[in-house]
Amino acid sequence: MRPPINYISLQESKLYGVKRKRDLAKILGVTVKKLKSLTSDKNYREWTNAEGRIIEQPSEELAMVLSKLHNILSEIQTPDYLLSGKKRIKPRQNADLHATNNFMINVDIAKFYQSTKKKYIFSAFKSIFDLSPDVSDLLANLVTYKGHIPTGTATSQAIAYWAYKKTFDRIHMLSLCQGILMSVWVDDIVFSSKTPLPKGWVKEISKIFYEVELSLKLQKTKKYNSKDFKTVTGTAISPKGELFVKNQKRKEIIDILRKKTVEDLNLKQSRSLFGKLTAQRQIQADFFEDVYKKTKKHLKSLEKNKT
């Protein structure tokens, strides 16, 4: 059995209460001069991935510093309603949390990273982390690109949360008062209850986000009743509260093997298929059992022959 993860309080973090730039630089393992140079947008490269998503990738030097900052932030205890970014927490556990509730609403923050403005990050560093204004400004510049959170850095997920922690806390408190269970997975927020959620709930949540210049993707808002199959972070939940792999994910596996056998796949294709199978087996342990075993055996053979 693996030992429990020991998080620390915010006040115990080495980042908390830093008042001088040289102390921040020391924590991140660079000089103040280097830290300032890394705040330039020139340290990023933009490119588009296969899904058409724009990736804002930091230079190797900046990535190393941001990785150190990420490690520091990942040590800090965060509220139970935040599930993403935590060690050993998988998307399935987000679904499992809501599985026994009959009614659910899923909302999605539109362009969360691109909409996260530097002023909210600065405010979080200053008021929550108790950093001096000049240290807060330097750090806010370090973790942003063109004034927003970039899509391709180690710190993006954590910074997006801390920038709006007060807003998330406010919505969580409102949920508790209404007897509603809330969870956050990056930009995906789930509300569930044994009884129907209040009328106008989404509108009320939307107004709160609007106050901090965020908006919801209304077209992606999903409302579920007791007889509906529900979806939470890629996992399907039956009306009886059972967790299943989504049909879309099943189709992806079937499409790969529609005109091929497992043994026909090359190394790259085998790794891709094995990754997909492994991910979905975290939801259903026996998902495509035979295909999984064959793929694992075939992949092992390919990797052995490669060496």
What does this structure look like?
- By secondary structure, the chain is α+β, with helices and mostly antiparallel strands.
- The protein has 13 helices and nine strands.
- A hairpin with a 2-residue loop joins strand 7 and strand 8 (235-237).
- The two termini are 33 Å apart.
Q: Which structural class matches the secondary elements?
A: alpha+beta
From the alpha carbons, calculate the radius of gyration and give it in angstroms.
22 Å
Q: Note the gap between the termini.
A: 33 Å
- Tell me the major beta sheet: 4 strands, antiparallel
Beta fraction of the residues? 5-15%
Low-pLDDT runs of 5+ residues are: none
Count up the helices. Answer: 13
| Total count of strands | 9
**Overall form:** globular
Sum this structure up briefly.
The chain has helices at 21-28, 32-37, 60-73, 91-98, 112-115, 118-127, 133-142, 156-163, 165-177, 201-210, 247-256, 267-281, 289-306; strands spanning 44-48, 54-58, 103-108, 181-185, 188-193, 222-224, 230-232, 235-237, 243-245. It is an alpha+beta fold. The strands form three sheets. The protein has a four-stranded antiparallel β-sheet with strand order 4-5-3-6.
